Amino acid sequence: MESFFSTFLQEAITFFAIMDPIGISAIALSILSSNITKSEINKVAYKTTLTIIIAFFVVLIAGEFVLKIFGLDINSLKVMGGLVLLLMAISMINGNNSLVSNKDRKPNEELAIIPIAIPIVFGTGLFSTIIIFKHEAKDFIDLISISLAYCINAIIFYFILKNSIYIKKFLGVTGQNIITKLMGLIVGALAIQFIISGIVALTKGYLA
Question: Where is this protein found (predicted)?
């Protein structure tokens, strides 16, 4: 039981850091209409959260199958996924995000699925992390841990995005930037672990 909670906590923190709900909520607000109402943002939060939950289970169930179709090694994905996470972490720490200025004239509810849910929230970083976590899972209990950790973060994301207007006023730009930079450090550390783990495994495989 102690091992379960330890693994669950690690997965939950990892998902939270990659999702960066407070930082993403600021990006979402920059894409949505400046005069968006509370009712509209509630709908956007609901649609976005539902989309990322569906995407999670699709990747959890079919992700490794896709890798097999293309003949890709999970350790290669670890290295590539780690590099993607590392670039994401550097961007978070530097405070750079090209998606912030991506103004779109579509209705707010349409923007909830693309680009907010995919690829802003559920991008290559989450995709790689989910597949790696699943590959490392030893039994069904581990899969429950991964699913629970992700779904709890999805719910947290929902409430943060739903109340993002108030959170932005409370934290201000400086507060949001500080949190995003801290999450960037965690994502960066995770990226290094993925890269080293993947390289070591690939090296052993080629030398064997």
Answer: Cell membrane
